[in-house]
Amino acid sequence: MGEEDRRIHARVHVAANIEVAGKDGLQPAVLKDLSRSGARFVAVEPVGVPGETLELFLPSLSGEDIGVEAEVASGCSRPTKGP
User: Fold this and answer.
1) Structural domain containing residue 37
2) Residues 6 or more apart from 71 whose CB is under 8 A from it?
3) Stretch 1-18: mean pLDDT, rounded?
4) What's the predicted TM-score (pTM) here?
5) How far apart are CA 45 and CA 60, in angstroms?
6) For residue 32, is it within any domain?
7) CA distances to 23, 52, 62 from 72, in Å
8) Is 48 a member of any domain?
9) Residue 25's domain is classified under what CATH number?
10) Is 37 inside a domain boundary?
11) Rg (Cα) of the chain, in Å, rounded?
């Protein structure tokens, strides 16, 4: 069973620049999809390990970022060329 099959809530595919705050500070990332119970994003550097808490700063229509607390569920250590 793949990760897609385990999702309870539908994903909304997006492409939005966000910031992620973890124990090593703030870094830019690209939000790929969002659901009621999760978010998938790509960052150049690892931002945490499963179980750690992060804060995601998501853009809003008002122009002010929305801070959302999140727990790392899984990660990927493959190097990327950018967010």
Assistant:
1) 3-71
2) 51, 52, 53, 54
3) 75
4) 0.76
5) 24
6) yes
7) 12, 6, 27
8) yes
9) 2.40.10.220
10) yes
11) 13
Q: Are 35 and 7 in contact (CB under 8 A)?
A: yes
What SS3 string covers 26-54?
Answer: EEEEEEEEEECCEEEEEECCCCCCCCCEE
Per the structure, the count of domains in the chain is 1
Structure tokens at 32: 């790929």
How confident is the model over 53-64, as pLDDT tens digits? 999 999 999 999
Alpha-carbon distances of 61 from 15, 64, 66, 69, 81, rounded to whole Å: 15, 8, 10, 19, 29
Instruction: Take residue 65 and report the two structure tokens written for it.
Output: 């970022």
